[in-house]
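User: structure tokens for Long-chain-fatty-acid--CoA ligase, please.
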Amino acid sequence: MTYPYQNFYEMLAAACEKNGRGTAVFNDKEKISYRELKRRSEAVAAYLQSIDVKYGDKVALVVSNSPEFVIAYFAVTAIGAVAVPINTFLKRDEFAYILNDCRAKVMFASVGLSKELKGLKKQTALESVIWIGGTEQSTDRHLSFADALACRDELDLSRRPQIDDLAHIIYTSGTTGHPKGALISYKNLFSNMAGAHEVFNVRKSDRFMVFLPMFHSFTLLAMVLLPVFAAGSMILVKSVFPFSNVLKQALLKRATVFLGVPAIYTAMGKAKIPWYFRWFNRIRIFISGGAPLAAQTIADFKTKFPRAELLEGYGLSECSPVVAVNRLDRQKVGSVGLPLPGYEVKAVDEELLEVPRGEVGELIVKCDAVMQGYLNMHGATDETIVNGWLKTGDLVRIDEDGFIFIVDRKKDLIISKGQNVYPREIEEELYKIEAVEAAAVIGIPDQYADEEIVAFVQLKEGMTAKETEIRAHLRKHLANFKVPKEIYLKDELPRNATGKVLKRVLKQQILDAQAEK
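Assistant: Done. Predicted tokens:
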């Protein structure tokens, strides 16, 4: 495949040529044109060079949804540095692990997140933090984004990124208890953008709603980079709460493309949507990802929004992230759709031999979007990418028409409200509590095809711990979305002959109890 650009600076410059006066970013009452977005990005890029950020250096972004995130991202990549967007819901120890793993030199950070971020410079190799939204006092180590925007130094673009260079590193939840950094190149991302551009028939007139977190690989690709690829617009909404404001902004700013997770679409399908929104909104595509959509949600949604298409898709960070999506003219309920154009997919057995159509196997993918590997994890990379094929760990059926149906997850992954959660990370934190003898964390599906996190804890003989104490410990060390909804204290956890806790037995106990209600 060939792509129109080598890097994002070229893509932004082309968008200026096509639509320089057009609005790149709507932010409340502010409109930022493509020319202005390019100018601000260049100023911040020159500032980064002035503080000695070089080609290939890692720059972390712990930034809430804002124009500053977009500007910082394009500034970092303009000079060939590597952006590292980080989940803003993490806690200090989790931030420290990622910053140390990628050896981030500089970090852009929202002042509103300072409680968890302060003190990180002592735990990491960070040389500077550029605070967005103000800083108490600008020093060599604590800088102001406002100063970066005001930079008038000359930008040196003598060395520009090439298409196979790293654009960013996305950290995914790891089965070992620590997240893994997926190395994503410009080619990986352009492959996704080109495919999505074709499948969704994206136009310069399209306006993309951005209310899910920009640090997420899907939001970053589909709602931030894709609009620039098409010289369209993004509409920023700082938070999903209250959701009425999301709908209000979609209506007032005339959004045409809307990205959400199943929990949002389930709520929208059941909520009383104002009649004027239903008939005067301009949304032509609703895109769903992150977890399976329930058939009832699709039916409810179609009744509420008959003039738009709700398209379910599938992806993973290791594939930049989009693999497949239903089409505007070809859809199957319960399916995550067809692969993007040019993407090869197979359902295979344990020997990586393709199984017959309609039979269950692990999904493997081969395309330009497959990551370069995991940072500092050669063994995990070799296990995940075999002869160019990415092993997704997801069990699927592929029908005679090529539509992919997710059956189950081979990996021990929980997807709760669109966020990936690996039980082992929570279990390892539980084991740090002195009174805990054994722990098991599982995901229980709810009525909306989402999953709730449930923990089972066996205490050491003669020791006590309350559920509230355990929860308080987890809240201190883990992001809130990883804290189990229910924590059950058990005298003994079921085990097999080798002593391994039988999670399937625990899961069945919960499901049986639910069925009896």
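User: Anything notable?

Assistant: Residues 414-516 form a domain with the GMP Synthetase; Chain A, domain 3 fold (CATH 3.30.300.30).
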